[in-house]
Amino acid sequence: MSCAGTDEAVGGLLQDQGGNVPVISLPTDFNEEELYVDLRSMLGHSLYLKCEGFNFAGSIKLKAAQEMVEAAERGGVLSPGSILVESSSGNLGVALATIAASKGYQFVCVTDARCNLSTRRLMEALGSQVHIIAEPDVSGGFLGARIEYVRALCASDDQYVWLNQYTNPNNWKAHYRTTAPAIARQFPHLDVLFVGAGTTGTLMGCARYFRERRRPVRIVAVDSVGSVTFGGPPGRRMIPGLGTSVRPQLLDESYVDEVVNVEEADTIRACHRLARRGFLFGGSTGTVVSGAAQWLDHHDVQGRLTAAAIAPDLGERYLDTVYQMNWLQDLYGTALLPDDELTAGVTPA
Ligand SMILES: Cc1ncc(COP(=O)(O)O)c(C=O)c1O
Fold first, then answer.
1. 30-82 confidence digits (pLDDT tens)
2. Nearest to 35 by CA among 1, 4, 58
3. Mean pLDDT of the chain
4. Pick the CATH number of 24-55+169-341 from 3.40.1390.20, 3.40.50.1100, 2.40.50.40, 3.50.50.60
5. CATH number of 61-162
6. What CA–CA distance (Å, rounded) separates 243 from 225?
7. Backbone angles phi, psi at 301, to 5 degrees
């Protein structure tokens, strides 16, 4: 657990005299950095899943958001009166909404129709404005259309500040500084790390960290089928978080040892298998776990590798999608999951 909080009295109610109880005064002061789930009983291979959903923004994006905001403040780009604007499929939006509320900035999140309703409501509850792009751009998809809208907003008024998670080096630096060292500390003999690729901030931060320290860790990127990130053809993708319709500028493939592509149907199956064991994770965790399982089936025949993967968020933001039977059946048909693996809710007709 990392906690930048105080150990002094807060409002006269709590006193952490032993130094073991986190007492915070800012939402960014707390982030669980040391929690792993061992998936051996589910996969037949030991896979340590690093849980990044335990903070006040509910996802790994709190780290990238904080790093980008603080760098912009230090650089004088962001100052009182600025309006933050960002294109996000959800989690970075919630993280920026959290930070904006705590620091007194306004924030406009530009997202698209695939953004979960609960994610949108979270941002609004935190006082942010959410703009939904309804139609994809002909060549750049939803992401292209979102970025066009952000550009137009910034051109209209110089109070708008776009941190741009797709190009901002502080996105990957957050993980270079926090996520990767935390994994390295926990697993000094790590053989393989599976990282889902969205903006590729998490992937590049972790990959750079291990490469620069000459640690022999195989970095396996996990992406969804239909994403163009690693050069595949574009296709329909309904689960936010992973994958892109425009190649991410942060990506430097020379740091990536392998790429595994996962069909969304397999993502859903992995999410439901985890939920059946009481672990309700977000959609991209299903992608990462499914990709890691495929890779380990081929490469860890003797079951000796030490493998870790990153779970960016938890499942409660996906109750209307990944864990909702009607949504699943409309998109993927009835044959997606065998009956004994169904955990999804059914909305009565
Ligand atoms: C749900 C989810 N999946 C995947 C990712 C991928 O992260 P990145 O943009 O660093 O590649 C994120 C980032 O927050 C996420 O929130």
1. 999 999 999 999 999 999 999 999 999 999 999 999 999 999 999 999 999 99
2. 1
3. 90
4. 3.40.50.1100
5. 3.40.50.1100
6. 8
7. -60, -40
Residues at CB less than 6 angstroms from ligand 1: 59-61, 91, 196-203, 241-242, 282, 284, 312-313
Q: Is the pLDDT of residue 340 over 60?
A: no
Q: What amino acid is encoded at 251 in this protein?
A: L
**Assigned token pair, 77:** 């780009």
Q: H helices of the chain, where? A: 40-43, 61-74, 91-103, 117-125, 141-156, 169-174, 180-186, 201-212, 264-276, 283-299, 325-332
- Identical fold for domains 24-55+169-341 and 61-162, yes or no, is yes
Give the number of the atom of ligand 1 that is nearest the alpha carbon of residue 313: 1
Q: Where are the domains of the chain?
A: 24-55+169-341, 61-162
